[in-house]
Amino acid sequence: MDTPDAAPLAVIGAGSWGTTLAQLLGEKGWPIRLWVWEPEVYEDLCRDRINHTFLPGVRLSPRISFTQEFAAALQGVAVALMAVPSHVFRQVVRGLRPYWPPGGVLLSAAKGMEIDSLLTMEGVVREELGAEVPYAALSGPSFAREVSQKQPTAVTIASRRREVALQLQRLCSTHYFRVYTSLDVTGVELGGALKNIFAIGTGILEGMGLGDNPRAALITRGLAEMTRLGARLGANPMTLIGLAGLGDLILTCTGNQSRNFQVGLKLGKGVPLSQILEGMAMVAEGVKTSQAVHLLAERLGVEMPLVEAVYKILYQDLAPKDAIKKLMTRELKDELEAMTETW
Length: 343
Fold this sequence. Notes:
This protein has 16 helices and ten strands. It is an alpha/beta fold. It has an eight-stranded mixed β-sheet with strand order 5-2-1-6-7-8-9-10, sandwiched between helices. Strands 3-4 form a two-stranded antiparallel ribbon. The longest helix is centred in the middle third of the chain and has 23 residues, at 185-207.
């Protein structure tokens, strides 16, 4: 794994994040097979070596080849990095299954939760490929554009197998992309999924013309909800105050590059959700994830009022001003008791 010519690597998905990670690994000297779904993106990459749709202006390493075939992408690879949206993750993994290389590691960079099963991506992989496939999740505060510009970035790779996490840490680390390891896959995946919901919430506040006080309150109480659900599902609460939790939460709730924040911004200005989504080239994971997390919280009996508010704004036409009034007039509580009641 430390020798670039040992084996090629596959990156499945050529959105902004998949293309950026392929470039990072290609520039380290690894031969990369980038699987591309969109025909127009594939044509641009083959012609110009630039992903004009999702990562314009970045000419990709000559170490990267492009394919639209799963068999070609996976042939002889040691690691496959999955960078597809969570709502198509199962479909893509199922397509990869006949060609999965023996001993191949699956590294997921997806941030979301499946609506029908209420599973994280680890659960989907276990059902589709089996628990014996080495699995890891990459998450943390990392806008693709800034990584492609080599701005200093820190993320976490989690695997239940320490040796896999360490292997992938060495694989992905560069002088501008610092990778920490974790054994807490549940916490890392939940942080990556839940922060998108709260980013929609802070975008709504911005769109309504509200200030910094409500944004700080939402981020802090959002962290409490992340930690509450995480603890209920067996995550280490400390993971949720790390890069994959608080770090990514801060980034997506304050950064204009966040697609989820932009969805909320437009909602706060009164634009209908259907119109917002029609105008987006890339997926805002929080829209679908809010539905899954709302259902999961109800099933588990975990109180998540902010998730409920965002869900009702998105799917039940709850007016944002009414959602805020309901949140602010809830029963008064002790802060630490409210934060740790399910720990």
